[in-house]
From TrEMBL:
The keyword Protein biosynthesis applies. Gene3D superfamilies: Translation initiation factor eif-2b, domain 2. Belongs to the eIF-2B alpha/beta/delta subunits family. Component of the translation initiation factor 2B (eIF2B) complex which is a heterodecamer of two sets of five different subunits: alpha, beta, gamma, delta and epsilon. Subunits alpha, beta and delta comprise a regulatory subcomplex and subunits epsilon and gamma comprise a catalytic subcomplex. Within the complex, the hexameric regulatory complex resides at the center, with the two heterodimeric catalytic subcomplexes bound on opposite sides. GO terms for cellular component: cytosol; eukaryotic translation initiation factor 2B complex. It is found in: Cytoplasm, Cytosol. GO terms for molecular function: guanyl-nucleotide exchange factor activity; translation initiation factor activity. InterPro entries: eIF2B_beta_subunit (IPR051855), IF-2B-related (IPR000649), IF_2B-like_C (IPR042529), NagB/RpiA_transferase-like (IPR037171). Keywords: Cytoplasm, Initiation factor, Protein biosynthesis. Its main location: cytoplasm. It holds the Pfam family IF-2B. This is Translation initiation factor eIF2B subunit beta.
Length: 111
């Protein structure tokens, strides 16, 4: 398997969509405890922002009026990911729900 791109779990969906459209394999690296056992449907959950200093330094902006948004979460469709590398090893996207069911109790889904 020729893996051309390795991206973290919180990478922007637009990047994975582009590389997926040209048949580049995408590998997501994430521990299972950072994955959610259910989908977030609340727009407020996706609208959370983190400090842009994690993305770029203030001195590197080059402009006083530049506004940098750094979202905490982004949804990447599972069909855009070729392989998930977790603390349990490598898994295909269809098997992630099985791994999460071993970690989370169904009662935890309602929290």
């Amino acid at each position: 398997m020729d893996v051309n791109t390795c991206v973290p779990f919180n990478i922007r969906a637009a990047v994975t969509k582009k590389v997926w459209s040209v048949s580049v394999q995408v590998v997501a690296l994430a521990p299972l405890y950072r994955m959610l056992p259910h989908h977030l449907y609340d727009p407020q959950s996706f609208g959370s922002l983190s400090s842009p200093l994690q993305t770029m330094e203030y001195a590197d902006c080059g402009s006083d009026s530049l506004q940098v948004l750094a979202p905490k979460f982004d949804f990447v469709p599972p069909d855009h990911i070729t392989l998930f590398i977790t603390n349990q090893g490598g898994s295909c996207p269809s098997y992630i729900y099985r791994l999460l069911s071993e970690i989370y109790d169904p009662k935890d889904y309602q929290i």
